[in-house]
Amino acid sequence: MTRIINLALLILQVLLGLFAIALAAPVVEATLVEVIPGPGMPSLASLNLTSAQLYAMDPLSHGLDARGANIEEKCFNFDLAPRTQVSACKSYLTALGKTMCGVHAPAGVHGFYQAFCQAGKAMIYGANWGPTDFAGSYCSDVALAIGYLLRDCGANGGDIAGQIAANGNGALLVSVVGV
Fold this sequence. Notes:
Number of helices: 4
Largest sheet: 6 strands, antiparallel
Distance between the termini: 68 Å
Number of strands: 8
Helix content: 25-40%
Mean pLDDT: 78
Low-confidence stretches: 3-30, 65-71
Radius of gyration: 24 Å
């Protein structure tokens, strides 16, 4: 009987020791990389938003069916960007609503681009692909275009890269790339 009690006490001491070690171990929280607006874009503070709030938003919650059948997107399998970071930038651009996201360039000269958002390794930018010196859309329309890339690119929910015209403006080419 004494042996059983001693064995039970030994087991209890071991369990209590393991519990104490578990309590003393530091808690490691997943770190979210900062969402950084592009040059000239509104700050997160001006929108009363934090990076954590942007990561928590549902990236596909804003009416993808509104675009219609005129979708000309390209998905790439290189320069991939982490899906969660792309989603955070999409949430930022959605929050901007009717703020203009645009690119200035000399008329008819392609290759000028403007960064709209970066989060970690994900970069969202627009390029002026039109015949005029400015191509722009509401930032919410840029976000809608990114939603299509999130939905259609990246096998099995993996990292993504691609290009698509902004909703309602074929002259503003929106790109999602990893940097």
